Each structure stands twice: as structure tokens, then as C-alpha cells.
Automatic annotation (TrEMBL):
Assigned EC number: 2.1.3.11
Function: Catalyzes the transfer of the carbamoyl group from carbamoyl phosphate to the delta-amino group of N(2)-succinyl-L-ornithine to produce N(2)-succinyl-L-citrulline. Is essential for arginine biosynthesis.
Record bears the keyword Transferase: yes
Pathway: Amino-acid biosynthesis; L-arginine biosynthesis
Keywords: Amino-acid biosynthesis, Arginine biosynthesis, Transferase
Positions annotated to bind N(2)-succinyl-L-ornithine: E142, H176, K236, R273
This protein's name: N-succinylornithine carbamoyltransferase
Short name of any one Pfam family annotated for the protein: OTCace
Organism in which the protein naturally occurs: Polaribacter marinaquae
Catalytic activity: N(2)-succinyl-L-ornithine + carbamoyl phosphate = N(2)-succinyl-L-citrulline + phosphate + H(+)
Quaternary structure and interacting proteins, as annotated: Homotrimer.
Residue positions binding carbamoyl phosphate: S47, L48, R49, T50, W75, R110, H147, P148, L149, Q150, C269, L270, R297
Length: 312
């Protein structure tokens, strides 16, 4: 594997899950694989889990991670081709990506969407520019339209906690005070399409995700109906895709409660706003898998880095 920028880069999710479980059982087994190799982590946006778990994964493989908050600390990067750079940007991605490639053996990038310009967001300009102009493999740590490390983590977690051969998995929209990206929901959907699960999506009218990603997944606008007999309820807010980036008025209360989830396990990628997205009674109960998910972020990242190092 050269790059990991999408769930589509996973050829066989079941074998990947098995390999991740082996890594989890013995995280230091390949501690020499990344010796004298450097992982560069470039953040255009905030992070807690991705930042720490990806560094931890690199350390478990013997790599040296180096981290930069690009937006705050680097020169402003220009992505336009042929731009006369007499504005706020001081360095072109052509040089920036090539230069970081001199210091790093793998580059991981986090760059969120604007949620203003759908076409520009969907062009994945930042991630794709790194793929084009870097001379080393690129890993997405969440881009405008996808969060493949999170999607892989969620697949690993569902496999780990499933007691049914073919569990029912619901991706449910929940409220939030801000306009949030579609990346986590997109990658979760793509990961579920690769697994043997009964997968449905619940969201209010006006909040349907990109049909090119959801494909034939059943979409319910009635949360209660969608939750019937669910084994896993994966919750995430996202802004409207149809009215791009908008936060719409919603009928009914979509906050996740203990009564609503019944016997299902609760999942969320974190960070989560308590008592807005989900009530304390769910997060503080045995039904919640959020900490187990966060733990599995390390093994998902470690699996991806291992595959890239083995391919080098
Ligand atoms: N789930 C996730 O990606 O968390 P961070 O934004 O804190 O990295």
C-alpha cells in the first residue's frame, strides 16, 4: 500500500480487522519495523485522539514522530496552480510537500473542509496536493470528505464487540450547536459497506448524506423506527449536505438517550458534547464503547503505518 487516504484503500476489511486484533494483542511485535524512519504529522486543524494515537502507533513501530500545527506555525501555504503569490500565502505546496518529504518517510495530514464551497471541499485540494507533490506515502488523518483512520477503527471496534453474526448497525445523526463536516459519517458508511452487517442510517429530513457514498443504504427519518433491534448505534452530527454546510431546524428531539438505545451499544468518534449529542446516562453506562473506540485508534493507525512500511 502506498497511501492511505480513503476506506477504499482497504482491500479486505476482514483480514485488516484480524491483523489489527493481532497488533492489539502484541503492540510491540514490530517495534523494529520503523527504526530510523520518521512520521511527520501535519495538522491544519485541532485534534486530540488522532494526534496522540497516530504518534503512539508510530512509537510502537519504532518510528520517530514529528508534529507540526501547520495553520498556526508554518508559512501560509498556497495551493493554487499559477497563482501570483502577492497575498497572504508565502510558500507553495509544491515546495512545502517536497521539503517535508526530505525530513519524513511518511506524511500524515489533517485538513477539514470549509463547509462553504462544496465543489472545492470535494476536490480534496489539500490532501490531493500532498499526494501529488510529496515523494513519500501520505496518510489522511481526516480530510474534507473522509476520516479513514476513524472508519477503520470503528470497523475494528464493531468486530470486537459484536455478539451477532450479522449485527444491526445504525448511523444516527444527533444535534450539535455548530456546522460539522460529513467526513466521519462518510467513512463509517463506507466501512460498514465492506462489512457483513445490517446497516441503516437515521437522520432528519434535509440531512441526507452524499448519495454517492450512502448508495443503497436505507435512510430513516424516524429515529425510533431505525433503532428497532439495533446492536450498535453510532452517533454523529453532520451539517446539511443538500443545503451545504447549513444547520437546519429539526423537528423532534434527536439527542441520544438511554431509553432510545435500549440494549444497543453506543458509539461515537469523540469529541462529544454531553447532553447535546448524547445524555450522560448513555456515556456513563456500560453501553458506551467510546473509550474502547479511542483505544482502537492506535491499532488502526499502527496497522496502516505497518502496511506502508512493509511496502517501502
Ligand atoms: N475522533 C477524532 O478524530 O478525534 P480528534 O479530532 O480529537 O483527533
Amino acid at each position: 500500500m502506498l497511501n492511505y487516504t480513503s476506506i477504499d484503500d482497504i482491500e479486505n476489511i476482514n483480514s485488516w480487522i484480524k491483523e489489527a486484533q493481532e497488533i492489539k494483542a502484541n503492540p510491540l511485535k514490530n517495534k523494529d519495523l520503523g527504526k530510523n524512519k520518521t512520521l511527520g504529522l501535519l495538522f491544519f486543524n485541532s485534534s486530540l485522539r488522532t494526534r496522540l494515537s497516530t504518534q503512539k502507533a508510530a512509537l510502537n513501530l519504532g518510528m520517530d514522530p514529528i508534529v507540526m500545527n501547520v495553520s498556526g506555525d508554518a508559512w501560509g501555504i498556497e495551493f493554487g496552480d499559477g497563482t501570483i503569490m502577492n497575498g497572504n500565502t508565502a510558500e507553495h505546496i509544491k515546495e512545502a510537500a517536497a521539503v517535508v518529504s526530505q525530513y519524513c518517510d511518511i506524511i500524515a495530514v489533517r485538513a477539514f473542509p470549509s463547509l462553504i464551497d462544496k465543489e472545492k471541499d470535494e476536490s480534496e485540494q489539500i490532501l490531493k496536493s500532498f499526494v501529488e507533490f510529496a515523494s513519500v506515502p501520505i496518510v489522511s488523518m481526516e480530510s474534507a470528505t473522509g476520516h479513514p483512520l476513524q472508519g477503520l477503527t470503528d470497523a475494528i471496534t464493531i468486530a470486537e464487540f459484536s455478539t451477532n453474526k450479522k449485527p444491526k448497525v445504525v448511523l444516527s445523526w444527533a444535534p450539535h450547536i455548530k456546522a460539522l463536516p460529513h467526513a466521519v459519517a462518510n467513512s463509517f458508511t463506507q466501512a460498514m459497506h465492506k462489512m457483513d452487517v445490517d446497516f441503516v442510517i437515521a437522520n432528519p429530513k434535509g440531512y441526507n448524506l452524499n448519495k454517492k457514498i450512502t448508495k443503497n443504504t436505507p435512510v430513516y427519518h424516524n429515529q425510533e423506527e431505525a433503532f428497532k433491534d439495533a446492536d450498535f448505534i453510532y452517533t454523529k452530527n453532520w451539517s446539511s449536505y443538500e443545503s451545504y454546510g447549513e444547520v437546519l431546524d429539526v423537528e423532534n428531539n434527536w439527542t441520544i438517550t438511554k431509553d432510545k438505545i435500549a440494549d444497543a451499544k453506543f458509539m461515537h468518534c469523540l469529541p462529544v458534547r454531553r447532553n447535546v449529542v448524547v445524555e450522560d446516562t448513555v456515556l456513563d453506562s456500560d453501553a458506551s464503547l467510546v473509550i474502547e473506540q479511542a483505544n482502537n485508534r492506535t491499532y488502526a493507525a499502527q496497522l496502516v503505518l505497518k502496511k506502508i512500511l512493509e511496502n517501502a
